[in-house]
Amino acid sequence: MWFAELVQQYERLAATPKRLEMRGLLVELLSKVPRDELRPTVYLMMGELRPEFEGVELGVADSLAAKAVALASRSTEKSVAEGLRKTGDLGTTVEELLTRGEPRLGADPLSVVEVYNGFLRIANSSGEGSQDLKIRILVELFARASPLEAKYLARFVLGKLRLGVREMTLLDALAVTFADGTKEARAAVEAAYNRSSDLGLVVDHVARRGLEGLAEIGVEVGRPVRPMLAERSPDLADVLTRMDGRAALEYKYDGLRVQAHIPASGRVKLFSRRLEEISAQFPELVAGLPGAIRNPPAIVEGECVPIDPETGEFRPFQEVSRRRGRKYDIQRLQEEVPVRLLLFDVLVAGGATTLDLPFPQRRTKLEKLVRESELVRLAEQTTVGSVTAAERFFETAIAAGCEGVMAKSLAEGSTYRAGARGFWWIKYKREYTHALADSIDGVVVGAFFGHGRRGGRYGALLLAVYNDQSDRFETFCKVGSGFDDATLETLPGMLKPHELREKPDSVVTDLAPDVWVRPSIVLEVRGAELTLSPTHRAGVGAIRPDAGLALRFPRFTGRWRDDKGPTDATTTAELVSLYRSQIRQIPKGNPAESPP
Ligand code: ATP
């Protein structure tokens, strides 16, 4: 397929915010792509070269891309810089420069595969001379591109493709194009994706062999499974009712979720909740896990928690997040922040997948599989059949330094639901007993300059929740409390790479911050209550037609959620259900506390 055809469809995709329309455009495109080109086409469309968990990156700095644009468009680097200042986007700049320049007759048209392979060569080049090679490949690609093609090449290279195609929309389109588009077909496509975390693999299988092809995609050690997620509940009585009166309760540890892949031989791999590989940051787990697992190959899941080696007590979660994302000083941090892995689930044991077993059977397998040590332990667990027993366990969990409990269903249907949030797992945290039920993970979409003591710096951030139905970020608060001076100092540097001149289309708000920020950074806030608001747009219409939801007295908890991407933030639907649950909790006859 010619790259020109692909970018034409990119234009149409980028122009529509509507999921159904987008699905139609995707179906049209996927039906035209030759089978063996589907995989690269899908990766390119998602702005990737390989599934995200492989961490394959182009490694092209903005300056290098700008240089390649200048060379290919026969412009000076100064005019590229000027264009960039005006448009804020290298894609638009190169498109304009090439449109204004002399037409380049006789250039060989680019095919999708050539573009993909060119990018792969860039990603694979390293060491001495790699910068020269990267620029040479880029110039070659740009030189053969039309202005429109060059626009998307530049955006891809800088990781800013912005077609707005979400994984879920692409899965819709796959079910329609390569199966019969029914609910069952859609579920099979999604399940295969949840097991493999690889859209390219899914498209390959479904295009070749339809639903049967999807069934061949199993869980594989070395390839992360999308994590099962929990719902929340305002009280333990409700938890037990939802679980038919009996449930397993576990300590809810406050750390970093880790999915550990232990092959029979070879290197252990650790993945974060976002499925990034974090093995390098936790060498002691990589070294210790083979000895802790009796029957590899295995995949186990747990929470990695910082501990005090002297007392065995848990330390604040912030310490373990210092270790995540680290490239240097790993050895020193390993000594400063010792960790323990508390295992709570098993996905593969002895090479066989356990995903389809009910939770009690998985727990038994996990207990047999794990050889406990200082480094690796099983999550503390009990089975309860009454609210009193549940409360007692909850108190023990809090006394042990945990943030609450996780209730897990014991029913036949309590299989490992990869990638899904449901009431098979319910989280119940300490805060539920007083303030607003649970914290909220908000996405930064804007910033306001400070006044007074905060003059010359940012004084508050505009936060949004994620609406996974419309694929938009809807604001729910402006937060200025909870930031210490050191954090305020670092904010400008942290926001800089994401600043935008205009409001991104994906953000829905009636407020106008001083600076817009591309939704990328997630942080945790708490507040007094959720109220209806005329200016915030989160969940507009869910409670009242013209009102959104806002968080009163929001406060940053100090926790940056680096382990979450913008679409992993709290969703609009969750915010609405938090609003509803707080109404249930408010004592009768106390109107001062009820939301307006
Ligand atoms: P979510 O993961 O539900 O989007 P979140 O990351 O804010 O939200 P929490 O509200 O803290 O997470 O609750 C879920 C997380 O709790 C899990 O992803 C896991 O990391 C952690 N956790 C701690 N202990 C357990 C346990 N015993 N069983 C399952 N998860 C646990």
Mind sketching the topology for me?
Blueprint: H1 3-15, H2 19-32, H3 38-45, H4 62-72, H5 77-87, H6 90-100, H7 112-124, H8 130-144, H9 147-157, H10 167-178, H11 183-196, H12 199-215, E1 229-232, H13 236-242, E2 247-252, E3 256-262, E4 269-271, H14 283-292, E5 298-306, H15 317-323, H16 330-336, E6 339-349, E7 352-353, H17 359-369, E8 376-378, E9 381-384, H18 387-399, E10 404-409, E11 421-429, E12 440-449, E13 458-467, E14 472-479, H19 485-495, E15 499-500, E16 507-508, E17 515-517, E18 522-526, E19 529-533, E20 548-552, E21 555-560, H20 572-585
Parallel strand pairs: 1-11, 6-8, 14-16
Antiparallel strand pairs: 2-9, 2-10, 3-4, 3-5, 5-6, 6-7, 10-11, 12-13, 12-17, 12-18, 13-14, 15-17, 18-21, 19-20
Helix pairs in contact: 1-2, 2-10, 3-12, 4-5, 4-8, 5-6, 6-9, 7-8, 10-11, 10-12, 11-12
This protein binds adenosine-5'-triphosphate.
The separation of the N and C termini measures: 57 Å
Q: If helices are DSSP runs of H or I spanning 4 or more residues, what is the number of helices?
A: 20
Q: What's the number of extended β-strand segments?
A: 21
Query: What spatial form do the alpha-carbon principal axes imply?
Result: globular
- Beta content: 15-25%
Can you tell me the CATH class of the largest domain? Answer: Alpha Beta
Low-confidence sequence ranges: 586-596
Q: Approximately how much helix is present in the residues?
A: 25-40%
Q: What composes the largest sheet?
A: 8 strands, mixed
Into how many domains do the coordinates divide?
A: 4
Structural class: alpha+beta
CATH topology grouping of the largest domain: D-amino Acid Aminotransferase, Chain A, domain 1
Assign the CATH superfamily of the largest domain. DNA ligase/mRNA capping enzyme
| List of distinct ligands in this structure | adenosine-5'-triphosphate
Estimated radius of gyration: 25 Å
